[in-house]
Amino acid sequence: MPVLQSIVHRLEPGSDSDRLVVSAASEVHPESTVMAELVAAISDAYNPKPKGWGAFAEGESASPLAGWLSAYLDAERDFADITRAIAERLAGLLEDRLSVGGYLVFDHSRRGEADSISLALVQQRQGIGIDAEQRAVPAAQLNLGQLTLAARINVSQWRSDSPGAQYVSFLKDRGGKKLAESLVELLGVEESIDAPSETRTLLKAFSDYVEQGDFDETASREKTDALVDYASEQLSRGEPITLDELSALVDEQQPKAFYEHIRHADYGLAAEIPPDKRTLNQFRRFTGRAAGVSISFDSHLLGSSVEYDEARERLIIKTLPSQLRDQLQQRQKGT
């Protein structure tokens, strides 16, 4: 992930403690391995977290940020200049929402074939290190595990002007609701995709597809594994699920089959869906075999199509696979 430009500004409480003050770097950070590692570590911390997705708004909801970024990309303003302006605006929005300071890390990087510009507020914590005399000493560390304010703009997608593209993402954790509101105002973004809801709809579409296809247990498990593996990989890379790519992975013999199923059934899914980690973690299979009985079903069906009676140690299956139902009916007729 080549880092094209990067810079760090500091936010710190003012003397009256009612406002945040920006201590801006005068120039971009020199190219270095350590800075590249920091940008990569922030990206790794950012990718799996819950996020909001959208695009820059127009009209009254617009923010100057899109204009500043355009000026930078068109070589009309430099990176230090526009990030300083962003930091000043963010400091004003966070005055009554952030009681401690931190470092605003900005980077313009190339992720795969796409360029992106990211910002993240990273706070510092005290740790312990060893000095040159091999003595334990206090050592400050950046606390990437507590990342609560960050955003990323897919510049390539934005500048390509693709209809319906969702090229802005930002952290949207439950514990940082007010910070997320400040980010939305800073970015001037119209949120248009609910990642958990979209992921649930995709998984529902997949379950319907497997059920209607009447696949055997092995084929069903292979397709489920293909979906989960691909979605998890996209999540770790901070990239959306692309329906046509997923369709080809789910069924190599009929690479368009799942995609066509989604389109014909009108699930209302966009061509690209940001994966939600919590929702994906719920999409696992329960499997068991004993005394000639083999049972396997997706975990998200528990409580809806499948019920578990813990007291009696029984499973109640509300919807039988059509192939199994036909076999049972034939057996009944034959007796």
TrEMBL record:
Entry keyword Repeat: no
Localization terms from the record: Cytoplasm, Nucleoid
CC per GO annotation: bacterial nucleoid
UniProt keyword annotations, A-Z: Cytoplasm
GO MF annotations in UniProt: double-stranded DNA binding; single-stranded RNA binding
UniProt-listed InterPro entries: Nucleoid_associated_NdpA (IPR007358)
The keyword Cytoplasm is assigned to this record: yes
Family matches, as Pfam families: NA37
Family label: Belongs to the YejK family.
Name of the protein described by the UniProt record: Nucleoid-associated protein YejK
Source species: Halomonas salipaludis
High-level lineage: Bacteria, Pseudomonadati, Pseudomonadota, Gammaproteobacteria, Oceanospirillales
